[in-house]
Each structure stands twice: as structure tokens, then as C-alpha cells.
């Protein structure tokens, strides 16, 4: 047997000689996991999408690289360490290059471990989950544009970025179906990985969706107001309410009478005696007051010991009553809380959402608990409105848009420790989908979320997460298998994400559009139809 | 007679090893238990070695063998001789050689002996060493013939062929090389050279580290073949890289300028995985190897052919069963 030093790879059924764009040759391992050998110079990236070309069956297997390791033709233990030691010693003496590894490209190689995502049928018409082994030693090549065509119909109408293969961006737009907002969306990332940009990009998609979807964004940091307002469609499709006096916003006012004890229980931590005190007060004032309207009267009580002894018949401990009193005074003093229910924005927000608008609540300036109080109130209103229509007016409900409530730091209201009965967010997570009401939970710490609630989320946007516990909880709740993607999630760069939902057959790697680019490339909204004169309008209508 | 204990054996070995390395050890006589046809230098003198430019063309030859089927009274062996060719620093040819199968025992080795060239007599005892060595020398001669003037042709082992191959055959190869301006050199990884009964190369490595420095390259003339042998070879020891873990025995034609050839050989010995061993020989070694999978393949092929020839399975199995292994399993 005589041959060149490179030692050509096997051809035949495996698909001809290597080269011609081959990135490697498949040698293992089972139906769900592929391993291929590549040259030591082959630059392979975690998360890279590659194709195993099975020349025998005509199938094209789609692989995702989940790990890359070194390989060597030498089998004796410590060979690689010894080589590294020799080279390192040269470096230490300032004699770099004194030794070299002859024929490194033959003696060493790389081994890529992959997840097999599925395969394209020979005619390219269908993508199927992996259930068979590709022919051993098949060529592994970079994907072609046609290899991703099957995804196009599954990418939905809310685009947010481009398909990503490792560090390369593929010219293929990815998105999620707007209807999936009702089945809840999780956005998980540590600081600086691009959560806000993603939310803005999704909001931009809703702005352009022609009223099919509504979004209620609770913005605690005031970071969205200016940016979303720049969107060409914002004038028609964005409505902003602010707790402070800010330009181009409506005043965010919540009527005391519209709030409920459940809103208080969602927003604040209450001890059992304090909750008993709330119910006692509600019973006492309830005859004359709607909602939490009694908080105003109660906050004006000056003689708490007397009130306790006489009006409450001593059924509440004084120090408990003092805590509730202090909180009542704070709530009624909030600038966004009004005693007059007629100034409440509840009805306006519902109207905006029914019209398929993006409603931005700029609650910057409010404390965290007050922000939750407002969000709880409006979310409850939305849920009541949409569930009421579903039950009583199914035709109207059919016409209503899918809406989602976007919550930052969602672990505050979706934690396992939270009382599920009073918590409207937990209710939305459990029941909202059938009413077309969803949550978009944004958090840096998914591990703090209630596992059962998290399992209700059908769409995960996973950006960089350093904490293994965070990754583990997502792994167990994701609608696609992301168990092997830990290293990739760890190494995601800002703006890079994995999207797991029921529509795509695997967790789709993507690079999220920069919101500024979305705004720049967005066409202006269509001009409003000219209003016909009344005498003509009668005919037109 | 008292049975030898490990303690007594260790004590005698300790004396042997210490004598060669101790004071005055350098004046102990040098010997080679496997080579009675060498005349040794009275004192082995270490000399610094400088690295020179690598030859433009280098060939490397090595052989391999495997026992495929063993009925003790009769055996099936395979041998191969492999070679690699380097131009500049690039390997341009890897030839793992034809696999040759031999039947030895039961008088069958006569058939093997008759098929050998290189002046091997028909009545010599035939074993795997002869068969492998014969193939290597044949291939060495081909490499010399194909090499360009100025080339270096390397062999794994010594420049003295198996004792059953007439020395004149080796002399003819070396003479042909000299005539064509081709240098032949052989490197022995594990030498039997000894001084005072202890391994010579190990002693020299320690002495050189003290005398010339831990990272020195050096060489030392050790012996020459006796004139009566008919092939003139000089035997040296050499450390071919500053970071070499070991020194090796190197055989060169008597007429070759040892320092120059070793300097060039040193330039080929800078592989980071095995500093001090000529890299082309590593490649030839890899090509010549007969790993277990190859042995199994040949065995299965042999089985098929025996089956076609009508030898029942039971006969085959009883003939070649590894009874040692079976007994150990029991």
C-alpha cells in the first residue's frame, strides 16, 4: 500500500473523498449524538450548525456543535502533555521554535461532538427528527441556504434576529409567532446580555403587526420610553403612561377603588396576622367602599389604639395595625394612586390593548412594590376583560388581539414562595393562554422562578447565563432539549441567544437585531386612508 | 544449591550498575553481548555536537512483524518493511510496504529460506528476525538506489544485518551508497552496548550532563567493526537534541564523517514529541507497525482460506487455540 502522507479518508458510501468544502468526517456516535473528526486547523465553534451529507441515503443531517476537543494519532498516555511541555520549555528559555511538531496536521486533529437536530429528506421537502444513523464517515460540510428553508414556515410573524451558526450570522430571519405570546415567553439573561434590546425588538414587531397583538410593558427603569417612541410606527401604535410627569406621555393613575386586597398581597410581603388585619379592615370598611377605597379613610385614622379597641373590637394587634396603617398612608400618598376612580387609566389601557397597541407603563420613580401594585392591577384588569369576553362574548373574544404583559425582574412575582391564590401573574401563567393573555417574563435569575409556573412557558429566549443553577432550571422546563447546550449558553455573547419553542424543531441559535437597526430599516407606516366627505362616505361604507 | 532470592539478585545488579557509573567506571571495558564483531575504543570520549542543516532528502526504513497463528510446531508470521521519504521538511511518501506471510516450522521454513535473496543460504535456521531484517535490507537497498546524491537514508536498528545474511550484502549496499554520494545511518533505540557490564548509554548520558551540561548535544566514538567482518561500520553514541531524554547508538559507514552526519541527523531530531530521535524514523516506525487489528484481519483472512481449502473449524480451532489464555481464564 503506497500513498501520500495525508492518508486520504474513506470514500464510497460515505460520500466521496474529503475536501471540496468538507469540514470533517463523521465517525460516531449514535442517533442523537454525532462525532466527527476535523483537521487541527478547522475553526469550529460551539453552537455552529453543520450538515452531515449522507451520500448513501441522500439525507442531509443537521448537526449542532456542542463541544470541540483535541485528538491525536498517538495513543500513549501523556503524549500531548509531553509535546506541550517541550514547547513550553522552549518558550521559557526564549527559544520558541527550537522544537516543532512535525506534520502536526497529520498527527493531531479536532473532534467535534454534536447534537443531531434532525435530517432533511432527500428532496429537501421535509425536516424530520433524527431516528437513524447517518452513514459512518459521511462528509460534514457547512450548511447551504437551502438547508434552512424548512425553518421559514416556522419562524412566525414577530421577527427578532438572524439565524446564527456559532459566531457566524446567517442571512435568514428568525422570529416567533405572535400567537405564542399567549403561551408565555421567558427572557433569561445576566446583565448586559441584551434583554432590553430583545424586548424592544419584540415590541417593534408588535408595533408593526397591524393590531393582531398587544403588549403591556412595565418599565421600572424608564429605559424604553425614548427608544420605543423613535419607532416609525410609534405615533399610531404606541401609548405611553408614566408615573412621573414626562413629555409625550399620559399620566399613569390608578384608582384606589379599583385596587383589591389581592393586589396588595401580590405587591407586598404580608405576615399572616397582617393579612388577617387587611381582611378585618376590608370587612369593616367594605360596606361603604369599593376596592381599596377604604385605604384613604384608614390612612386618616389618627387614634389607632382607639380605632382598634372600638371599631375593630380589639381583634387586631396594635403593632400589626400600625404596619398596615403605615403602608396605607404610603399607598394613598403615591402620585400614581388617585382616590377618584374616574381618573384611572385602567379603561384606557384596556382600550389600547384591545386595539392591538403597545402600552408602555413607565413606572420609573416608583418603588419596586408600588410598581408591582400597578402591574398587578392592570394585569388583573386585562385578564378579567379577556376572560370575560371569552366566557360571555366568544365572537368578540375571537376578534381581540393576543396580549402579553412584559415584566422585568419577574422573579419578584413568579417566585415559588409567592401566594398563588392572590397572585394574578401566577393565574395568567396557569390560565391565560386560553383567554389569549400571556406573560413575557424577563429575569436574570430563572432559578428563582416557580418551576411549575415556568413549565407553562412555551417560548424561552436564553441569552448568556453564567449560573449553572439558572441553566439547569431552564433545561428541565424548556420545550426543546437544551441539555447539551450548557457550554454554548455560557459562552453566548451579548445579543446572541437560543430560542426554544414548540414551533421550531430545535432550539434555534440567533443573533438579535439591534433595535436601532430595526428602527432604521423600518418603513414608515401606511398613510391613513383619507376620510371621505359624509355624503360620499355613506356610499363607501 | 540455594534458590536465588530477589534480594541477592538486586544486590548483584546494584554492584553491576554502580561499577559502570562510579569512579573509574569510564575505564571499564566496553562490550556488546549481541555483537561480537566489534572492536571497541579503549576509552569512550564525549565530544560536543553542533546541529547542522538537515539534508534536502531523507529516507527512513523500518520493519514490523506479527505472529498471526501459533500452533507452536508451526506458525504463520507476517512481516513488512516500510519507508518514508522527506523532501525539505515535508513527508512526500509514506509506503507501509507489502505484507508478507510466512509459514515457519514443520520443515516449512525451507520454503521461506529458498524464497529469500541477499545470499541467505537454503539451510539456515529461519525465524521472524531473519524474515523481517531481510525485508528491511532489501528496502534499504531500494531507497539507496532511488535517493539523490546528498541524501540521507536511515534505518531503525544497526548497520549490521542479521547474522544469517552475509555481511557482504550489507557491504554492497553501503558501497553503492557511497558511490552515489548517499549516506546511510542506523539508529538503535535500545542498545545492548555495555561498559563494565552496565548499560553504556545511560552512563554516558549522566557523564555528559556533568561534563558538558544538562542541555548539551554530544557524540562519542564507541566501536568499529572488525576488518574480518567484511563490512566497515563505525558505532557511535549520540545525544541529538538538547532536550533529548535519551542518547542512542548510531551506526555509520566507516568512511563517513561522523560529526557532520550526526549534526545533520540532529537537525531531523527536533520533533517536540520525541526530541532527540530522528522524526523520519518515527514515521517509518508507525508505518511498519503491525497492530492487533491488522493481526486479526490477517487471521480472519487466513481462516477463510483454510475453510475454502476444506479444513474443518474444529481442526483449525484446536490447532491454533491459545491454550495459555484458555487455562488462565479457567
Detailed description of the structure:
The complex is a heterodimer of chains A (541) and B (330). Chain A is of the alpha/beta class and 541 residues long. Chain A has three domains: 12-152; 173-220 and 357-516, 3-Layer(aba) Sandwich (Rossmann fold); 261-333, no CATH class. Chain A is built from 21 helices and 22 strands. Chain B has ten helices and 14 strands. Chain B starts with 5 loop residues before the first helix and ends with a helix. Chain B is globular and about 65 Å long.
Biggest β-sheet description of chain A: 12 strands, mixed
Element string of chain B (H = helix, E = strand): HEEEEEEEHHEHEEEHEEEHHHHH
Tell me the number of structural domains of chain B. Answer: 2
CATH fold description of the largest domain in chain B:
archaeoglobus fulgidus dsm 4304 fold
Proportion of residues in β-strands of chain A: 15-25%
Strand % of chain B is 15-25%
Structural shape of chain A: elongated
Describe the main β-sheet of chain B briefly.
Answer: 11 strands, mixed
Any idea of the CATH topology of the largest domain in chain A?
Rossmann fold
- What Rg of chain A, in angstroms, do the CA atoms define? 30 Å
* Low-pLDDT segments, ≥5 res of chain A: 1-19
**CATH architect. name of the largest domain in chain A:** 3-Layer(aba) Sandwich
Number of domains of chain A: 3
Summarize the structure.
The complex is a heterodimer of chains A (541) and B (330). Helices cover 34% and strands 23% of the residues of chain A.
Layout: helices, strands, pairs:
The complex is a heterodimer of chains A (541) and B (330).
Chain A: E1 2-3, E2 22-29, E3 33-38, E4 49-53, E5 60-72, H1 79-92, H2 104-107, E6 108-120, E7 127-128, E8 139-141, H3 149-152, E9 158-165, E10 168-176, E11 185-188, H4 195-207, E12 213-219, H5 225-229, H6 234-237, E13 238-242, E14 250-251, E15 254-255, H7 261-267, H8 272-285, H9 294-300, H10 304-310, H11 318-332, E16 337-338, H12 346-354, E17 358-362, H13 368-392, H14 394-399, E18 402-407, H15 411-414, H16 424-435, E19 437-443, H17 451-454, E20 459-462, H18 468-477, H19 486-490, E21 496-500, E22 508-512, H20 515-521, H21 534-540
Parallel strand pairs in A: 11-19, 11-20, 12-17, 12-18, 13-14, 13-17, 15-16, 18-19
Antiparallel strand pairs in A: 2-3, 2-8, 3-6, 4-5, 4-8, 5-6, 6-7, 9-10, 9-22, 20-21, 21-22
Helix pairs in contact in A: 7-13, 8-11, 9-11, 13-16
Chain B: H1 6-21, E1 30-31, E2 38-40, E3 47-48, E4 57-70, E5 75-87, E6 90-95, E7 100-104, H2 109-115, H3 128-146, E8 152-156, H4 167-180, E9 183-188, E10 194-195, E11 198-199, H5 200-211, E12 218-225, E13 233-239, E14 248-253, H6 258-267, H7 279-288, H8 292-308, H9 313-320, H10 323-329
Parallel strand pairs in B: 4-8, 8-9
Antiparallel strand pairs in B: 1-10, 2-12, 3-12, 4-5, 5-6, 5-7, 9-14, 10-11, 12-13, 13-14
Helix pairs in contact in B: 3-4
Amino acid at each position: 500500500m503506497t500513498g501520500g502522507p495525508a492518508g486520504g479518508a474513506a470514500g464510497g458510501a460515505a460520500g466521496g473523498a474529503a475536501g471540496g468544502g468538507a469540514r470533517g468526517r463523521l465517525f460516531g456516535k449514535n442517533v442523537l449524538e454525532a462525532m466527527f473528526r476535523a483537521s487541527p486547523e478547522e475553526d469550529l465553534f460551539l453552537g455552529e450548525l453543520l450538515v452531515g451529507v449522507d451520500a448513501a441515503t441522500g439525507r442531509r443531517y443537521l448537526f449542532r456543535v456542542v463541544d470541540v476537543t483535541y485528538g491525536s494519532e498517538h495513543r500513549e498516555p501523556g503524549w500531548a502533555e509531553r509535546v506541550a511541555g517541550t514547547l513550553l520549555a522552549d518558550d521559557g528559555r526564549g527559544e520558541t521554535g527550537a522544537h516543532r511538531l512535525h506534520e502536526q496536521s497529520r498527527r493531531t486533529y479536532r473532534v467535534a461532538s454534536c447534537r443531531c437536530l434532525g435530517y432533511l429528506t432527500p428532496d429537501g421537502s421535509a425536516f424530520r427528527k433524527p431516528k437513524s444513523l447517518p452513514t459512518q464517515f459521511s462528509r460534514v460540510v457547512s450548511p447551504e441556504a437551502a438547508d434552512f428553508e424548512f425553518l421559514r414556515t416556522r419562524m412566525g410573524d414577530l421577527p427578532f434576529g438572524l439565524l446564527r451558526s456559532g459566531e457566524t450570522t446567517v442571512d435568514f430571519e428568525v422570529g416567533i409567532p405572535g400567537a405564542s405570546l399567549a403561551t408565555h415567553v421567558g427572557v433569561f439573561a445576566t446583565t448586559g446580555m441584551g434583554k432590553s434590546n430583545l424586548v424592544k425588538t419584540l415590541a417593534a414587531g408588535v408595533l408593526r403587526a397591524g393590531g393582531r397583538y398587544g403588549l403591556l410593558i412595565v418599565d421600572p427603569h424608564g429605559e424604553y420610553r425614548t427608544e420605543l417612541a423613535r419607532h416609525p410606527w410609534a405615533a399610531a401604535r404606541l401609548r405611553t403612561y408614566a408615573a412621573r410627569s414626562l413629555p409625550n406621555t399620559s399620566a399613569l393613575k390608578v384608582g384606589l377603588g379599583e385596587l383589591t386586597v389581592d393586589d396588595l398581597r401580590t405587591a407586598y410581603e404580608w405576615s399572616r396576622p397582617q393579612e388577617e388585619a387587611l381582611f378585618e379592615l376590608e370587612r369593616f370598611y367594605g360596606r361603604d367602599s369599593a376596592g381599596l377605597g377604604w385605604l384613604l379613610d384608614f390612612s386618616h385614622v389618627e387614634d389607632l389604639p382607639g380605632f382598634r379597641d372600638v371599631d375593630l373590637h380589639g381583634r387586631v394587634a396594635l403593632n400589626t395595625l400600625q404596619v398596615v396603617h403605615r403602608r396605607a398612608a404610603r399607598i394613598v400618598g403615591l402620585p400614581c394612586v388617585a382616590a377618584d376612580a374616574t381618573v384611572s387609566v385602567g379603561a384606557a389601557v384596556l382600550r389600547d390593548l384591545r386595539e392591538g397597541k403597545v402600552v408602555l407603563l413607565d413606572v420609573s420613580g416608583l418603588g419596586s412594590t408600588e410598581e408591582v401594585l400597578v402591574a398587578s392591577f392592570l394585569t388583573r384588569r386585562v385578564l378579567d376583560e379577556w376572560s370575560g369576553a371569552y366566557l360571555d362574548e366568544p365572537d368578540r373574544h375571537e376578534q381581540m388581539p393576543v396580549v402579553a404583559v412584559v415584566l422585568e425582574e419577574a422573579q419578584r412575582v413568579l417566585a415559588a414562595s409567592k401566594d398563588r391564590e392572590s397572585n394574578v401573574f401566577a393565574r395568567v401563567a396557569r390560565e391565560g393562554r386560553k383567554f389569549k393573555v400571556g406573560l413575557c417574563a424577563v429575569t436574570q435569575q430563572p432559578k428563582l422562578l416557580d418551576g411549575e409556573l415556568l413549565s407553562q412557558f412555551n417560548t424561552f429566549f436564553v441569552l448568556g447565563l453564567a449560573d449553572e443553577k439558572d441553566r439547569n432550571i431552564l433545561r428541565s422546563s424548556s420545550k426543546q432539549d437544551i441539555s447539551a447546550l450548557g457550554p454554548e449558553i455560557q459562552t453566548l455573547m451579548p445579543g446572541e441567544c437560543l430560542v426554544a419553542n414548540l414551533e421550531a424543531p430545535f432550539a434555534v441559535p440567533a443573533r438579535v437585531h439591534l433595535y436601532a437597526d430595526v428602527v432604521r430599516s423600518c418603513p414608515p407606516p401606511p398613510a391613513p386612508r383619507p376620510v371621505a366627505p359624509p355624503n360620499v362616505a355613506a356610499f363607501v361604507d | 544449591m540455594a534458590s536465588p532470592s530477589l534480594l541477592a539478585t538486586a544486590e548483584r545488579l546494584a554492584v553491576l550498575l554502580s561499577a559502570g557509573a562510579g569512579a573509574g567506571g569510564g575505564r571499564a571495558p566496553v562490550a556488546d553481548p549481541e555483537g561480537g564483531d566489534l572492536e571497541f575504543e579503549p576509552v569512550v570520549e564525549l565530544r560536543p555536537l553542533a546541529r547542522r542543516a538537515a539534508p534536502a532528502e531523507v529516507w527512513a526504513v523500518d520493519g514490523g512483524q506479527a505472529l498471526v497463528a501459533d500452533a507452536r510446531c508451526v506458525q504463520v508470521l507476517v512481516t513488512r518493511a516500510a519507508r518514508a521519504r522527506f523532501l525539505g521538511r515535508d513527508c512526500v511518501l509514506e509506503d507501509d510496504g507489502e505484507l508478507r506471510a510466512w509459514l515457519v516450522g514443520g520443515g516449512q521454513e525451507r520454503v521461506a529460506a529458498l524464497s529469500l535473496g541477499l545470499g541467505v543460504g537454503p539451510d539456515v535456521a529461519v525465524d521472524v528476525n531473519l524474515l523481517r531484517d531481510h525485508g528491511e535490507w532489501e528496502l534499504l537497498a531500494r531507497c539507496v538506489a532511488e535517493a539523490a546524491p546528498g541524501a540521507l537514508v536511515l534505518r531503525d536498528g544497526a548497520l549490521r544485518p542479521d547474522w544469517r545474511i552475509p555481511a557482504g550484502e550489507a557491504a554492497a549496499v553501503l558501497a553503492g551508497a557511497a558511490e552515489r554520494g548517499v549516506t546511510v545511518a542506523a539508529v538503535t533505540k535500545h542498545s545492548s552496548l555495555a561498559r563494565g557490564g552496565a548499560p553504556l548509554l545511560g552512563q554516558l548520558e549522566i557523564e555528559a550532563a556533568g561534563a558538558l551540561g544538562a542541555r548539551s548535544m554530544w557524540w562519542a566514538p564507541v566501536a568499529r567493526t572488525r576488518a574480518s567482518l567484511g563490512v566497515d561500520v563505525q558505532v557511535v553514541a549520540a545525544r541529538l537534541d538538547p532536550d533529548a531524554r535519551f542518547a542512542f547508538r548510531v551506526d555509520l559507514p566507516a568512511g563517513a564523517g561522523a560529526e557532520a552526519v550526526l549534526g545533520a541527523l540532529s537537525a531531523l531530531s527536533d520533533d517536540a514529541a520525541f526530541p532527540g530521535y530522528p522524526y523520519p524514523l518515527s514515521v517509518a516506525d508507525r508505518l511498519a507497525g503491525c497492530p492487533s487489528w491488522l493481526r486479526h484481519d490477517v487471521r480472519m483472512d487466513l481462516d477463510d482460506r483454510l475453510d475454502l481449502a476444506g479444513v474443518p473449524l474444529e481442526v483449525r480451532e484446536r490447532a491454533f487455540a491459545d491454550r495459555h489464555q484458555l487455562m488462565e481464564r479457567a
